[in-house]
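Section 4.2 – Deliverable D4.2 (structural model, holo form)

The reporting period included a commitment to supply a predicted holo structure for the target in complex with iron/sulfur cluster. Inputs used:
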Amino acid sequence: MAHPYHLVNILTGTKGAAEMKDAKPLAKIITKSARPLLVVGPRTLSFQLNEKLLIEYVIEIAKVGNIPICATAHTNKKFLELGVTPDTTYDVIEITNHLKDPEWKGVRGEGNHDLVVFVGFRTDLGNQALSTLKHYAPHLNTMTLCKFYYPNATFSLPNFRKDEEWKALLEGIIEGLK
Amino acid sequence: MEGKRKREKIEKIIRAEDEWEPIGHTPMPHVTDLRNWDRRLLQTYKPFYAPFCDLCCLCTYGKCDLTGTNRGACGIDISSQQARIVTLACCMGMSAHAGHAAHIIDYLIEKHGEDYPIDLGDQVNVECPNIRTVLGLKPETLGDLRKAIEYCSEQLVHIVSSTHTGQEGDPVDYESKALHISMLDHVSMEAADVAQIVGFKFPTSVADTPIVDMGWGAVDKSKPVILVVGHNPACSTEVIDYLRKEGLEDKVEVCGICCTALETTRYSDKAKIVGPLSRQLFFLRTGIADVIVSDEQCIRTDLTDEASKVGSVVIASSDKACRGLEEVSDRPTDEVVKEMVDNGKHFLILDHVKAAEVAVKAVLQLAPKRKKELIDENKAKELAQSCKECNSCEQVCPNLLPLSSAIKKVAEGDFEEFRSCFERCIGCGKCEEACPQDVPIFKLMQAVASWDTWKCRVGRGPVMDTEIRKVGAPLVLGTIPGVVAFVGCSNFPEEIDELAEIVEEFARRKYIVVLTGCSAMVIGMRKDAEGKTLYEKYPPEFDAGCIVNIGSCVSNAHITGAAMKIANIFANLPLRANYEVIADYVLNRVGACGVAWGAMSQKAASIATGCNRLGIPVVLGPHSSKYRRLYLSRKEEDDWTVMDGRKKELVDTQEPSPEHLAYVVESKERAMVTIAKFCIRKNDTPQGRQIKLNHYIDLHKRLLGALPDDLPLFVRTERDIPMFFKKEVRQYLQEKGWEPKPVLSLPTFIGTYPTKVPLDAVIK
Ligand code: SF4
Ligand code: SF4
Ligand code: SF4
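Output (C-alpha cells):
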C-alpha cells in the first residue's frame, strides 16, 4: 500500500493486504507455513462456482494441503454431509479470540497457527475479524480466498469481476498444493 | 471520595428517611463506585477489539496511526482508543434517551405539575426497578423522575470528559465508564417510559393490549395522511388530541415509522404502524404522507429534501433536530399553513400544540392536491432497462445485496431476486445514489413491495409484579429455560424472516420471548399459512411460550427491570442502591439473553452494554462487529471459580456459564444455538439444566449437524443429561473423557473481588 510522504497529516492507514492475483505464490505461502488453518464461513454454502459449491473447493484445499478446518456458523452440518469432520466448530469470533493468543495450542493441539486462511464470510464481519488479527496477532499471517479484496488481511485476492477468474485461481491453489 | 456534604445531598434526593428498604452500598453511584464490579466482570469477559479504523483523528496532533503496537502522539494505544470510541458511542446512545426523558418529563410537568403521581396500575408496585436499584430512590412523582435524569446528566459530563485527549489510558477503565453510562441509559429509558405511561395514560398493568394494523398497505390512502417519525410521542399525541377535539379522528390517517409509531399506537389504536426504520426512505418516496411530523432520533437527516421531491411537507418538532428550518411557533397558524400548502415550505415548530394544529390544518388542504403515483411491474421493467449491470449499486450496499443482477432481471420481467433484495433492504438509499445510469431503484421497489396489512400488538410497558411472582421460581430453577429479549433495530442481515423465525423457535420451545422497538414490529410482518402473525398465534403474557411486545426503544428498561424484579420479588433481595448484589444475582441465576440482531445505532450500543453490566449476555448480528468491541471468555482456558454463597467457599465450577457477555454470530442458525446456550446458568437445578441442555442439543444437532463440541463443559453430573438424548450423550461424554464437576448451591461473584458488599447480602 502506498503511503503519503507526510504520514501524520494525511494518512489513512499503514498496513493493508498485499493483493495476490496468482495462485502459485499463494500456494507457496500455504506450503511454507508450518501450521496453517482454514476458517470457513457460511457463504461457502451459497457461492456456487459452476456445478460446485465454494465449500467443495475448500475441502479440496484442506485435503491436498492437509490443513485443519474450523467450521464456523452452521457450516459444520454441510461438512458432515460431505463426509468431512472439521477439526473444530468454534465460531469466527471465538477462533479469532483464540488465535490472538500466541501461547494457544491450536486446533490440533500442536501450537498456534502461523497462517490463517479465511473463506466464505460476510465482508463486514470478515474484515473486522481480520482487523483483530492484524492489530493483535503479529505472530501469524492471514489470507483470504473470497473474490473480494480484504484490506485487513496479510494476503488477499483482488476483487474478481468474473467468477471464472476466481475459480481458476482456486483450482491453481489446489494444483499448487499437490 | 464521597464527602459528608455529598452524602447528605444524596440522602436528601433519595429521601433516605423513607424506610421502604435498607439503603445498599451504592446510592447514586459515581463514575468509579462500581469499578470493582466491572473489573470482576471483565476479568472473565475480557474486552475483545476489532478496530474499525487504524487511526485516531480526534485532535490536531494526529492523525495518529495506532496499528499494532503503535501509540498516538498523546500516548494512547489501539485498545484504549477502541474503548474510548465505544465509551463515546455509549454516551451518545445514553444521551439520546436521557435527552428524550428530560424533554418528555419537562413537557409533562408543564401539563400536569411536578407532583403528578406515578401510578402504574394495580399490577405494578415495583414501578421503577432501575431507578430504585441504581439511585436508591422510589420515585413517586414526575418530579422524582426528573431527579433521576439530573443525576444521569451529571454523570454523563464526567464520562464524556474522560474521552478528551490525555485522560483515561486503560481500556478496562474506559470499558468501566462505558458500562456505567450504559447502566444509566437504562435509568434514563425507564424515567422516559414511566413518564410517558403515566402522563399519556398508555396501557399498563395489562397484558392483552390491542392488536393494531401495520404496513404501508394498512394506511388508508384515500384520507389525508400524517406521518410521524422518530421516538418522542409528545407531538404525535398532541396531533391525536387535536383530531379528537375537532372530531376528525376518523377522517385523518395518522401513521408512524420507528418508535414514535409504537408510542402513538399506545395512545390511539386507530394509529397505524408503517414499519421499522428500514422502511423510512421507501415510504417517504412513495409520497403517501402529506404531512410529516418529525421528532427525534433515527430520522433521516435528508428528510426535508426527500419530502420536497414528492410534495410532502415537514414539521420538525424537536430541539435536537431543527434541520435548518425557520421556527414559527409565534407566527399565526393560518399564515404558516398557507406557506406550507402554497409553497411546500417546511417549518420548525417547537410548540407541540401549535405543531399539531398546523399539521392537521395543512394535511386537510394538501391531501386533495397529492399526486401519488405508485409504479407497477410494467413500469418497473421499463425503468430498469437503462441498467448496465455495472455493479456500482451493490458495491455500496451495506447489506451486501446482489442488486446488479436483480435489477437486470427486473428489466427482463423477472422480479423474484429483486423482491428478495427489498425484503432484506435496510433502506439506506446508497444504491440509487451510486447508480451512474440514474436507475430509480427505490421506485422499482414499489413494484415488488407487498401491500399487505400486517399486525402488531401494542406495547404494554413494564412486566407485571404478579407475572414475576409466577415465573420467578421456574426461571431461577431453570424449568422455564430462559427469557429471550429481541431488541433494537431489525435491519441486518435478513430482517423480517430471520427474526420472526428465531422468535417463533424460542416461543415454541416455551422460553419467555419479549420484544421492543423495530424488532417488535417486524415479527408482525410475517404470516403463516392461515394468515396469522406471531402476535395472533402466541399469548401476550410474560410467561413460558408467550410473545410480549414491551414497547418502544425506551421500554428496553422494562426488560432489565424485569430481571431486577425477579431478584426482588421472587428472591426478596432489596433493590435499593444495591446494584452489585442485583447484577450478581442476574448474572449467576437468571437465564436471560438479549438479541440485537439488526442493531444499528449508538443507542443499541448503550442498551446492550447496560444489559451486560447487569449480567445479561447479548447476541448480536454479524454487522455488529462494527461496534468494535465484544466481551468474551475463553471457555476452556478461563477460570470459572465462583463463591458458593451458602457454604462460603470458593468452587472451581469449570463451567462457562454464561459463556460470553457480548458476542457476534453470523447466521441465524448459530444465533439460535448460541441463545439456547447463553440461557444456561450455574444456578440451574438438574431438572432445569436438563431442559436447557435438551434445547441446546436439539438445536445444535438440527442446525449444526452434531452434538456440541463443548457439551461436556455444561454437564455437571449425570443428572444434568436430558432423558431424550441420554444414551448418545453418555457415550459422547465418555469419549471426551468427561468427569463430574463440583455442584454448588448459591453461585456468586461476591467474595471473589474487593467490594464493600458482604457475602451475606446475597442470601435472603
Ligand atoms: S487524541 Fe491522541 S491518538 Fe488521537 S489524534 Fe490526538 S494525539 Fe493522536
Ligand atoms: S437502499 Fe437497500 S438495497 Fe440500496 S444500498 Fe441500501 S440496503 Fe442496499
Ligand atoms: S448501479 Fe445502476 S446501472 Fe449499475 S448495476 Fe446498479 S442499477 Fe444497474
